[in-house]
Sequence to fold (184 residues):
Amino acid sequence: MSTGVRQQRAAATREQLITAGLSLAERTGLAGMSVNLIVAEAGVAKGTFFHHFGDRSQFLLALHTEFHDRAFAEIEKTTAGMAPGRDRLLAAANAYLDECLRHRGVRALLLEARVDPAIIEAIASRNRTVVQLTSPDFAAMGWAHPEPSAAMWNSAVVEAAILELNQGGHQPEIRTALAQFLPA
Fold:
């Protein structure tokens, strides 16, 4: 078997494990998601899991990355061509909130995983990226301190996602309240 074919199979198996984890997240949460359940859901041997991820923590990090990569792709698609400013911030926030609701299990899993050191650093890294991406919006609106404003906005959007997750779905009053933090 050629190296290219082996690499393709390895990537497919890794994706199979990630897909299994994403599926299990909604049903079991973090506490109930064991390596045994993941490999059973994926239909692979336990050794295969450890070959691809090393340990459960690295698997959770992969789930975190997959969730946020999907969310960022949706945000980019939603905000493509929009000028920096309030409308773009609100469109991005709504895209993120919608993506969280589409993958409720993963969002719950990630909230539970916040005490894992690997996840803590990944969250901090993503937050830094969000601040870099949204600071120009605050600058375009004339805010005196765009970076701290972007960091605080990010926290508010994440809190809105948690509130919607806890309420079990889209909450117009939460989104309206979030929008009120950005004067028109």
Observations:
- The CA atoms of residues 10 and 138 lie 43 Å apart.
- The two ends are 61 Å apart (CA to CA).
- The chain is about 80% helix and 0% strand.
